Structure formats: structure tokens, C-alpha cells
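hey so i finaly got around to running the thing on Nicotinamidase from Occallatibacter riparius. pasting the sequence first so u can double check i didnt mess up the copy paste, my clipboard has been acting weird all day
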Amino acid sequence: MHLNPHDVLIVIDVQNDFCASGALAVPDGDAIIPLIHELAPLFAHVILTQDWHSPQHLSFASAHPGKRPFENIEVSYGEQTLWPEHCVQRTLGAEFHPDLHLPQAELILRKGFNPQIDSYSAFYENDRTTATGLGGYLRERGLKRVFLVGLAYDYCVGYSALDARGQGFEAIAVRDACRSIGLGDSVAQMEAEFAAAGVKVIDSRELLNGR
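ok and heres what it spat out for the C-alpha cells, dont ask me to read them lol
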């Protein structure tokens, strides 16, 4: 696969709390960092996203007495999975993993900072109406094809890919440069949504062999 100047690599949430020993560690999450470092120089444009929660965020189980992490509750915008406290603003857990080194990144987009709305996608908060502004940014920059890597494939990467398609961008998930949380059949469900929406899933070799 050949890249062009209208392509952008979006690196989703490679933060301490999603990596080994983190508060919401994604299995084998750290292992994708060397591959991301291989892929990033192939792109003219790189964007990073950062989960950036307020203390006592609505999505934290600790904000709901009697509830435990990974239970689901109903909130104003629908069903919400409850998580362990993670990626709280200005904490070590919210920082990018120290091994991640992408100084060429043109934008760091922080999401999930509204205390009453969770935000998996880099494009919309979970109410599905509050935009982050990323779609407009990409259009203003003339970027048309979005490649996604990072954590986690079945949540923040996946929802970002689906919303990219919804906003008219071509969306490609680089499967081996992601890792999944794997709650129930979350991976299979996400890939079914990918197929329905036209999100393409590739292996990194398709990019690395095309350089």
C-alpha cells in the first residue's frame, strides 16, 4: 500500500494507564510501541490522542456507590461501561508511555475531559453529538485518509475509525499495531461494525513493504 500527502496516522491513547501496570492495562499494550515507531516515519502527518479525564469522572465505577468496574449503567446518553479510575488529568497515568517518541506529531487531541460524558472516539464524545473538532481539523488540512493504531482496538481505536468513516474519511485500522481490551465479544462486534461501515483492516506489512 502506497501512502500520499493526504494520509494521516492517528496514534490512539498510548498512555501509562493503558500499558503494563497501568490502572486499565490493555494486555500487551506496550508491545505496539516499536511498531508504531516503524510506521510513523512513513507518514507526512501524525496526530496523537490522549484520554484526559477529570477526577470522579462519570465513567469511573468509583463515582457510583455500589458499582464495580466493567459493569454497565444507563446514563443520559445511553449505556455506559464503568471503568477503573484511569488517565486522570495531570497524573502519571495520563502521560504518554515514556517509550513513545513521536516529536513530529502535529496535534495532541485530548478527549474525555467533560466530567459528565465519556469519550472513546477521537471525533465525538459518547453522546454522539458533541464533536471534538478533529473532523474539521482534518478537512482544513486537506487530509483524507486516516490510519489508526494504538489502544484499544475494540474501543477507542474502533470508535474513532467508525466516526472517521461517518465524517467521510477513508479509515484504515492497522490491526497488529493495536491491542484489545476484549470484554466479552467486543472485538468481534467491533469488526462487524467495521465491515458494515467500510473500515478497512490491514497488517502493518502492507505499509512497511510499500515504502
